[in-house]
Write a structure and sequence with these properties.
The chain has 3 domains: about 180 residues, Chloramphenicol acetyltransferase-like domain (Chloramphenicol Acetyltransferase, 2-Layer Sandwich), CATH 3.30.559; about 280 residues, Chloramphenicol Acetyltransferase; about 220 residues, Rossmann fold (3-Layer(aba) Sandwich), CATH 3.40.50.12780. It contains 30 helices and 26 strands. It is elongated.
Length: about 800
């Protein structure tokens, strides 16, 4: 080793190396293809051309070592290789045997340290069809480099082949892709880079030359050791020079300003990204000829490239699916800025984030030009490594994830462009990848502008995150957007058709066929409670701090309160404020108000006094139910509109222990005064965007909801529900009314128990509740607590939340 010069990895190589450290011994970075030659193959000559390619391209001879704990690379001297030969011609199905073989070796990991990072093989399918296989590791090449390798071998093979039956085999002018690389066409031109020579850092006189005037910047001894230029080591030196330049600082400032804030990660799947199962598959779709023609016509009309249109539609799709406006997708960048680099076998490409703000009211034509403008800005600053950007973002924003979960990759390194009549090239997928989803867009017109080839989309997706049905649906939705955009480019983003007619019919009609004939749908909630009291009068209904009430006792106390409220004139749609702490009394107050015929308004006793006053005045509460000790603290602020202080005292009921009597006449049920359309309670919003707003809820809606929840949970009388929600939160009403209507026992947690995971865990262990109604913010707070995590086996069988899937992590049943 001492005779070879050691070099650091470039930033694109470092990105691959760091990923390899996270996912060792996998095939995620194998880039491979099989090349079929249609005609009698000279395998000896083909082997010679592969060896010549190895000799003259030092990038294929790079090897890695770990030196002082850091990865280093060196160029190994050329030694002739014996290229293995596989004969499938005698098999029953030669093509199938080839596919099985190359699939297997593509999925096999490559040794990284002190080992060749490229493999070649020859194969025969018949006397008139054969070819070769290439596997390169991403540490030494990207897909463009693979294309160069294939074209280099084919070009020299056809120049030297003696098989004159192959048309034009002796012309040897190289493939269309190679000519495009030399001309500087392809991705760079489509994205508008070539039009800005200042951004390239080259004058018009220098354009078309390498930074080193076509000469390798090494000593003659090293040039002989490394082979002919262009060399990947030239790029390494240019990158090192760039990192100390003023342009580097401008790139750095651009990206750090772009991500001075970060949006929420856009995730199309509810599956957790941290599972680290890398198994992946590729699903390929070929667009029909008519749609392909329409897409190209639309791009000409709008003056954009095909990739930009697809980027715009993917942003539109993500917004329509998630309602997130600030969105990021990953975009691979060629990162080859000079003709020399475009002809170098090596690892140049890296992904960078493309960030757009989606305004759904913007016409498609305007939005695609915003996307194109942002893509040009990214291209202008493409030399800056994603590794450094991500490091900055993680430090500044304490980000644990990456910046995007979807990558759109236009394939512009066309492999099958050389001698199309006699060569067929097949990309091979290694069947594993760390990215959740990569969409590859293949446009044959990028390598053959006059061609009529159809657009092709490959969806490479992780199996743990996306099912085949997910990908089918995603592709169909993109096609729907694409088709509608092609026919109606004047439409605004929100107007573009996303769903198929069948999906629209399903959502508008089939999903809404949810009506159920509940036998008690016309009953009020307190009627349902009274019916349950008759069924289970001595069953426990409510427990708080060791004190309990049976259904009979709770009903009797609620009836006593209801009589007092009716004496005060409370009837249907009259609002009575409840200002009580968590206690037996607040539940008695709720049921007493309902039995009197009124609607309750829960107000947290620790609200700011101005907020309490506003809610009382805005709701025009007729009465206030509280405790005398609380009243003394706040009575100066809780006067209902138009009341004097003396009058206020007459409109307040103190629900303390001495309020209740043993008079059996007062414990009897009262005649019902309510209809299902009457108010049952009023709840106020948080007021985070302005003043709190009161929402009026009717008996019929709550009754329907409670019976639906009962059906879904299949709750049984005698089971236990733990109440943990704030009295001013809508969920508190549900966790009180639901169990009381169906015979469950309520364990009412105290404020200290709600706030302390240890105390709450002890409460759960003591009463073993089957049901808890929780929101993710509450649930995640306790999941993150170490004590709670240690006690997970003692949690409830069912924890329900209001429609948010994160809570499913709490289910133990």
């Amino acid at each position: 080793m001492s005779m070879f010069s050691l070099y650091p990895l470039t930033y694109p190589q470092r990105a691959i190396w760091l990923t390899e450290k996270v996912y060792p011994n996998t095939s995620i970075h194998n880039i491979t293809c099989s090349v079929k030659i249609m005609g009698e193959v000279d395998y000896s000559l083909l082997s010679e051309m592969i060896n010549l390619c190895l000799e003259q391209n030092d990038g294929l001879r790079l090897r890695l070592i770990e030196h002082n704990g850091q990865p280093k690379q060196y160029v190994s001297p050329y030694t002739r290789r014996e290229i293995p030969f596989f004969d499938f011609s005698q098999s029953a199905g030669p093509e199938e045997q080839l596919y099985a073989w190359d699939r297997k070796i593509t999925a096999s990991p490559m040794k990284l340290i002190e080992s060749d990072l490229c493999d070649f093989a020859l194969f025969r399918l018949s006397s008139s069809v054969g070819g070769f296989y290439i596997k390169l590791h991403h540490l030494i090449s990207d897909a463009w480099g693979l294309a160069i390798t294939v074209d280099w071998i084919l070009k020299n093979y056809f120049e030297n082949c003696s098989n004159k039956n192959i048309e034009d085999c002796s012309k040897g002018n190289g493939s269309k892709q190679r000519r495009e690389a030399e001309d500087g066409r392809g991705l760079v031109e489509e994205s508008g880079w070539e039009d800005n020579e200042e951004d390239l850092g080259r004058s018009s006189q220098e354009k078309g030359r390498s930074p080193f005037n076509g000469q390798c910047p090494f000593e003659e001894e090293e040039k002989r050791e490394r082979g002919k230029c262009p060399s990947y080591l030239d790029y390494l030196l240019s990158e090192q020079a760039f990192t100390s330049s003023a342009r580097w600082q401008k790139n750095k400032a651009f990206w750090e300003e772009k991500f001075s804030t970060i949006p929420e990660l856009t995730d199309l799947t509810s599956a957790p990204l941290g599972q680290r199962r890398l198994e992946a598959v590729r699903k390929t779709f070929l667009l029909d000829q008519a749609l392909t023609a329409q897409v190209r016509g639309l791009c000409r009309q709008l003056g954009i490239s095909v990739p930009v249109l697809f980027q715009a539609l993917i942003f539109t799709y993500l917004y329509r699916l998630t309602s997130q406006r600030d969105l990021i997708i990953g975009t691979p960048l060629l990162n080859r800025l000079t003709p020399a680099e475009k002809n170098t076998i090596g690892m140049f490409v890296h992904n960078l984030p493309l960030r757009l703000y989606v305004d759904e009211a913007k016409p498609l034509g305007d939005f695609v030009h915003e996307v194109a403008k942002e893509a040009r800005a990214v291209l202008k600053h493409q030399r800056y490594p994603y590794e450094l950007l991500l490091r900055y973002v993680r430090q500044r924003h304490n980000l644990q994830s990456t910046l995007y979960s979807l990558v759109l990759s236009p394939i512009n390194a066309s492999l099958d462009s050389y001698n199309r009549q006699h060569v067929r090239v097949r990309w091979l997928f290694p069947e594993s990848q760390p990215e959740p989803l990569i969409i590859h867009l293949t446009d044959p017109a990028s390598s053959d502008p006059a061609g009529e080839g159809r657009l092709m989309m490959h969806y490479d997706h992780r199996l743990d995150l996306y099912s085949p049905a997910d990908i089918e649906r995603l592709h169909q939705h993109l096609l729907n957007l694409l088709t509608d955009a092609a026919h109606h480019p004047e439409k605004r983003l929100y107007e573009l058709k996303l769903l198929s007619e069948a999906e629209e019919r399903q959502i508008l009609y089939e999903f809404n066929q949810t009506s159920l004939d509940y036998p008690q749908k016309d009953k009020t909630v307190h009627y349902l409670f009274e019916e349950q009291v008759k069924r289970t009068p001595e069953s426990p209904a409510l427990v708080f701090r060791g004190e309990s009430l049976t259904y009979r006792q709770l009903n009797a106390r609620a009836n006593q309160l209801a009589r007092r409220l009716r004496e005060k004139g409370v009837g249907p749609d009259d609002i009575v404020a409840l200002i009580l702490p968590r206690s037996l009394e607040i539940v008695i107050g709720m049921m007493g108000i309902l039995k009197a015929g009124g609607a309750y308004l829960p107000i947290a006793f620790d609200y700011p006094l101005e907020r309490i006053k506003y809610m009382l005045e805005d709701s025009r509460a007729k009465l206030i139910i509280t405790q005398e000790s609380l009243y003394r603290k706040i009575h100066q602020q809780i006067k209902p509109t138009g009341q004097s202080e003396a009058g206020l005292r007459g409109e307040v009921i103190f629900l303390d222990q001495d309020f209740f009597s043993e008079n059996e006449n007062e414990a009897a049920d009262l005649p019902n005064q309510n209809q299902p359309k009457d108010l049952i309670y009023v709840i106020y919003t948080s007021g985070s965007t302005g003043r709190p707003k009161g929402v009026m809820i009717e008996h019929r809606g709550v009754s329907n909801y409670l019976q639906a929840v009962h059906t879904i949970l299949q709750a049984q009388a005698g089971q236990t529900l733990l109440s943990i929600n704030s009295v001013s939160f809508d969920m508190f009403s549900m966790e009180i009314l639901f169990p009381l209507c169906f015979g469950l026992r309520i364990i009412l947690a105290s404020e200290p128990e709600i706030q302390n995971p240890r105390l709450l865990s002890q409460l759960i262990e003591k009463y073993r509740p089957e049901i808890i109604l929780a929101v993710p913010s509450f649930a995640s707070r306790f999941l993150d607590d170490k004590f709670w995590a240690d006690q997970k086996e003692k949690t409830s069988q069912n924890l329900q939340d209001p429609g948010q899937p994160q809570i499913k992590n709490f289910y133990l049943g």
